[in-house]
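## Example record

The block below lists the input lines for one assembly entry, exactly as stored, with component labels intact.
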Amino acid sequence: MAAPNVIEVKKLSRIFRNGDIEVHALKDVDLVIGPGEFVAIMGASGSGKSTLLSILGCLDKPTTGEYFLDGVHVTGLDKNELADVRNQKIGFIFQSYNLLPRTTALENVGLPLVYNRSSLFGNPREIATKALQQVGLGDRLHHKPNQMSGGQQQRVAIARALVNDPAIILADEATGNLDSKASIEIAELFVRLNDAGKTIIMITHEPDIAQYAKRIVTFRDGIIAADQTVAQRTPVHLPTSNKTI
Amino acid sequence: MNTLKGTKTSLAFVAKIVHIALEAIVKNRNRSFLTTLGIIIGVAAVIMTISAGEGARLEIEKQIEGLGVNMVMIRAKQEPRGGIVVRVGKPITVKDYEMLQQNAVWINRVSPVVGLGVRVISPWGNKNSFVYGVSDQHFDIMALQVISGEGFTLADVKAAKKVCLIGETIREELFPNLDPIGQEVRINTVPFTIIGLLEEQGQFMGQDQDDMVVAPYTTVVNRLYGDVNFNSMLASAIAEDHVEDAKQETIALLRESHKLLPDEPDDFEVMTQLELMEITGQITGILTILLAAIASISLLVGGIGIMNIMLVSVTERTREIGIRLALGARESDILTQFLIEAVALSAAGGVVGIGLGVLGNFLIYKFTGFFIPTSYTSIVIGFGFSAMIGVGFGYFPARKAARLNPIDALHYE
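Predicted structure tokens for the full assembly:
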């Protein structure tokens, strides 16, 4: 049997109600993403891409439709099961990093391990340290968010997303708050993680960043307007054997 | 769901949540401190105010008991008329006194009490004070100790001798650094010889009990009062068990002495020690309620303090909850964490508040001599209420946030 699709959504809709007004953020979206893919999602503001990512990340629920994640029928799960799915199967990266303030990089990265009901074995400190080394922050273990640059904070967030070895990494405009140099560093980090076998979906507004992905899905008005393979990927300049990975 | 690695909540897992909660307290020092401060102030204020009320009640009860538990008080009936209290019945007379002395079986001691405001003059000073004309038995009825010199005798009373005993306040002002025994003092215009000094008694319901002169009632009535009638009498029952018998007997004898017909009401009042205690108990009860009201206000203020700091941090905490939910925390994990935080802060604040309250009571005792036993009720009320507010305002906003979709909690503003 072939490996199951990492993500499979069928006829996914999300309707927001604000008083009498109904907003159809997603309209019957079908999408399949296999293991090892690196997908960039593009589209104007309000096109539904962030709504989709929130649903894929189990942070929000679809109004109708089916969602299978790594073989698990997510739309049939209760609250606690959804929490465990977020914990063990998803690594979510936010535009605004969403690190806990006054908390060191190591503790931030260790947070998903706290809520992991399966990983009581193993040394959480060691695992978190390894994840931080993986993103090149081995020398910033005890720095707090306000002592780090935006790029560094985002890398802490990426390490946090990796720490439970999830089935998929979801990044919602991970480079949106960063300058171009830091953006490229993050994009290259994604490429290397993808090369190492991680399935990644990232939302981005920047065509340059999208060119690091293998596939670009474009949203417009709640539907998929285009879905194409990237012919000319931006090459990663640093060798993959770099010690940061 | 076999594809997830582990979904069971173990004890070790709960330990991790406890650790997270305690860590959060330490990380947010300012918020933790302010929350705790609100609880500390609330608890300490309640303990001190309620204890003060209880302390006052106990003190008054103690003083009344100090008067002698067997005491029976007799006085002419008084009623307020046009704003002043006037005697409405027959006065208490020597005849009444003799009636009790000769016929009462449940009473072993009785003394008239004639009290009036006078001016007391010595070569070293003079002051306004009170003189009480009593019999020689008064000292036993009131358990009044003579610490130097001696009390007067029945012979002194019969002879209406111009002798007196003085209280400590009088001695201090009129005979500074002198032995007053044997000295002469003028009360209004009449010279008296001081034969004894009364034991210091302190204040009783705001009155200086040492600012008085005690003399034979015969002398007071003849020389100072100008009226042969008494204001009142004091008697003591032969035993504690017979106070009520003594009261009934006194009523019967006085009715006879006043020649009252069976259908006429008493024109005098007889009150026992116990009844006096009940009345003052009502007064101090009002005092306690008043103090409790003040305490509730301080609790309210403390409570609002706690509430404010909790609500101010709700935005930050809602985002924090969103992050934790996004990383896989269950609603119950969040609730456990916030409950532990709130309980720990309330408990810490409560303990410090109790300590502060007890210390405050002790300091009051140290500096004013007014002993305030810390009341357990006040601890329970103060701690209970503060903890309720602390836990309530820590827990319920957290529960609200934990029930949101993670994405809504993350975007909360």
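The domain at 36-61+78-229 of chain A is CATH 3.40.50.300 (Rossmann fold). Confidence is low (pLDDT under 50) at residues 240-245 of chain A.
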